[in-house]
Amino acid sequence: MKVLLLKLPQERVKDVLLLLKVRWSDLTPFCAEDATEALRIIHREQPHLAILHLPERKNGATPEECFELIGRIHSSSALPLMILGRDYGITDKVRALEMGADDWVSAGFSPMEFVAKVGAVLRRCRPTRPEVTSFLNGALSIDYATHRVFMRGRPVKLTPIQYRILCHLAENEGRVCTNTELLERIWGPDGRDARELLKMNIYRLRSRLRQHPSDPDIIFNERGTGYVMRTPGSGRNGTPSPLPPPHTAGAPAS
């Protein structure tokens, strides 16, 4: 299991890792102190759980940076998040849970309670999607177990980047996914300037999905906003994704 420890004091890191290793012997820990580093690790390592230390309020100071981190994690990933905080911080506890944290553990936790809560969060947040899911009235199928894609029963060969773009668009079928959303989800927090790369991969993805003249366009460009996957003939606005600029045509796809 991969766990991301956020802003935990060193003495707490030792305690938490000792307890987790007793239950999960294959534990791989990562540590981060700020949002940029945390999002980079989440994108690169795909951890199973994050634990964030919420410090107590001192001299009127508020842990706003921690709340900002909760919001950024919740908006950019489905990573389960536990908060380690003080018992008396009821206002902070409610705020953290409302912002997307999955559970709260008091700073004076008992070892058995802590391990039990971690296990409960992992079970509750485990993905429940089936191994094979169909979209667009059954025209598109994605086998998540093998990373295979089929369009009207025919296999479609995609690069890892194209596969991840397709999965995100398909799972948000009918909703416009903004350019920023796609860039951060596919390339991580350092990918915000890769719009030309996104445009090129969308174009190549559309080309591979249209292997037969009868295959319709299913990925549309909402100009200035992003991209959407929808059933052809739905009557909604949007245009097929444009060709990439000539100077990007030979760039790598991933």
Describe the protein:
The chain is of the alpha/beta class. The protein folds into 2 domains: about 1-125, Rossmann fold (3-Layer(aba) Sandwich); about 130-250, Winged helix-like DNA-binding domain superfamily/Winged helix DNA-binding domain (Arc Repressor Mutant, subunit A). The chain has 8 helices and 13 strands. The longest helix has 15 residues, at about 195-210.
In CATH terms, what is the fold-level topology of the largest domain? Rossmann fold
SS class: alpha/beta
What order do the strands of the largest sheet run in, or round the barrel if closed? Answer: 2-1-3-4-5
Q: In angstroms, what separates the terminal alpha carbons?
A: 27 Å
CATH architecture of the largest domain: 3-Layer(aba) Sandwich
Order of helices and strands: EHEHEHEHEHEEEEHEHHEEE
Profile the largest sheet: 5 strands, parallel
Overall geometric form: elongated
Ordered list of secondary-structure elements with their pairings:
Layout: E1 2-6, H1 10-23, E2 28-32, H2 35-45, E3 49-53, H3 64-76, E4 81-85, H4 90-98, E5 103-106, H5 111-124, E6 132-135, E7 140-143, E8 148-151, E9 154-156, H6 160-171, E10 177-178, H7 179-187, H8 195-209, E11 219-222, E12 226-229, E13 239-240
Helix pairs in contact: 6-8
Describe the structure concisely.
The chain is α/β, with parallel strands linked by helices and 254 residues long.
Provide tags for this entry.
alpha/beta; Rossmann fold; Arc Repressor Mutant, subunit A; 2 domains; five-stranded parallel β-sheet; four-stranded antiparallel β-sheet; disordered C terminus
